[in-house]
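=== Structure Prediction Worksheet ===
Name of assembly: unnamed complex
Input type: mixed (protein and possibly other molecules)
Chain count: two
Listed entries:
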Amino acid sequence: MNPSLLMIAALVIFAATYIFIITEWINKMLAALIGGFLVVLTGIVNQEVVFEAIDWNVIFFLIGMMLVISVLRKTGIFMFVAIKSAKLARGNPLTIMMMMFMVTAFSSAFLGSVTSIMILIPIVMLISHELKIGPIPFIVTMVIASNMGGAATMVGDPPNILIGSATNYNFIDFILNLTPPVIIITLISLLLIFVMYRKKIRATLRDRAKLMSYKEKNLVKDKRLLIITLTTVLVMLVTLAMDSVLHIGTATIAMSAGLFLLIISSRQQVEQVLVSDVDWVTIFFFIGLFMIVESLVKTGFIDGLANQVMTSTRGEARPTAMAILWLSGVFSAFVDNVPFVATLIPMVQKIGTVITQKSLIDPIWWSLSLGACLGGNGTLIGASANVVAVGIARHNGVRISFWEFVKISASFTLLSLVVSSIYILVRYF
Amino acid sequence: MLLANLLDAKTITFESRSVTREQVYQDLIDRICSHNKHASPVCEKPILEAILEREKESSMAYPSGIAIPHIRLENLEDTIIAMTFLENPIDYEGVEINWMVLIFTDKSSSKLYLNIVSALLKLSLDAEAMQELHAQKDGSGVINYLRKKNIEVGKDICIADIMIMDPVSISPESPLSVLDSLMNEHKISIIPVVDDQKHFLGEVTILDVLKVGVPDYLMMIDDLAFLRSYEPLESLFEQEDKILVREIMRSDVKTLSPGTSIIEAVYHMIHKRQRFFCVVEGDVLVGIITAMDIFRKVIKA
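=== Predicted Assembly ===
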């Protein structure tokens, strides 16, 4: 078949899949898998090619992390920290909001944003109920924190996992390059929260006293398991950090930690953990995406796109980085950032064959990461954590409308992208 | 197998006097023993005491007016039935009994025994047949009638035979307070929800009531060990008049039809780890079957 016809066919399947993912007319995993096999079925690419495109490093890294998180969650440490910080705030709602912001950001940096939200949002709903304060500001600021925290490390947000796997950047590179701007953004956000809510939220001393009677010590039931788990996680992080020397591979490191913890903690219920704690829907969503994107790569669409970008930025790194930062920021506000980044990775790789100087291509990758992760805060549908949090709220009769979310999140998102731009420009150019 | 073929005219009697339960039992035991030579070794044992002892564990009376006391005897190797039709019903723990059937059986034929019980129960629910039987003059008349009616033993019993008929039910528009007092008064933890024509709409359980005081976000928290008290649960009663049954009932529940076999009911109970099912015929509520009913009437019988 004519090569340009193949490209158009691939693009049609890709666009249709994308529309289904965004609108959720059908389950997004199903959409990705259907698209992934449709490109084979229609003869655009053959099966061997798309299967080779599946990044097993990402897949097993995700599975390994899910296993680690399932055990870490069981230890109760994250709930302990959440409740403890509410008590340290002496029940003061504004302080709690700021503490929760930091706890969520920190937890998201290591557990991932969605897991953190699933653990922490129900707790903050309980707290806001006890304090008789509407939960919406708490929920939205925590969602924002989760996407910020996720941007800080290689393991925090799926786009970073994808970028980490597709490039040679290791765990430390992510920390050195992404954690500083995220810390700056988080600090400014805390200030923003202080200004926005200082006069708006109040709680009576009687209600605050209720929080102070929480017995958070009861949450850590198995100290031995907690110590083993935290040690394992620490060893895993150190090994990830040293992987540029050790060359073990991030997936193997995460899987080793996950399997070890699985045997230590839940040997009796391995099957149950594998069925319920590993999010197979996400795993197969990624697999489907890898397959579809490969069809765009093989038919030359990605190359064309990269050339377009290079032409419009005249092949210069600085405008390219800025373009990618803002493009991904705006895009991620409206579409799931995972398929977006999955598509842009091969494009940036192509740009890397033109801009070969390391100091010039580095900021482009970091721009992609910052834009995609932080842009997710833009609207209610920008990232999985947002959707999950709003879903939990709705289950409890708290409706957060699209605009209500944007009203709070827009300023934080704009702030994030502006700070990121300044950071990229000052640090790398 | 026909029920008529299992009966002996000499062990079927009609009683017009007012008698006690024990008197009826003793009379039935005597008849069985005197007309069955092969039963004589076991007849030497204190049978009446054994039956009465057994009745203390679980009632042998059924709401349709039949009582089926029975005894399992080792070495009997037979199943012998005796019965008395009572002109003056006997009060058996609040149930009016006008047909008393005593069964001697051995340990190995519990299946046949259960089938006989099932056939008798079904018969006792048939008002016309009961009238005919009571109008008979002697044992042969009863046997002839049963033969003519072709009453068979061996059809499996179904949940309609042992379910609680006409259970306590509630309207969807009733407030929580009414539901609470019904549960309290009747000591039940599940109430079917029906409209005024008894159409089944759903059910409410004690957990649905408690759930009113426990919002979803609490259910989503991994571990509640830190929380020692929670006001909405403790002040549940304040909401009693504000919340209607309609708001907390569950309508997507599994129900069983009256013809469901016991084994199928048990299967669903184990599968769903649920100890009761509403029994619905068409869309009308006809009863409730509980695991305890099955246990009492089938396993322990």
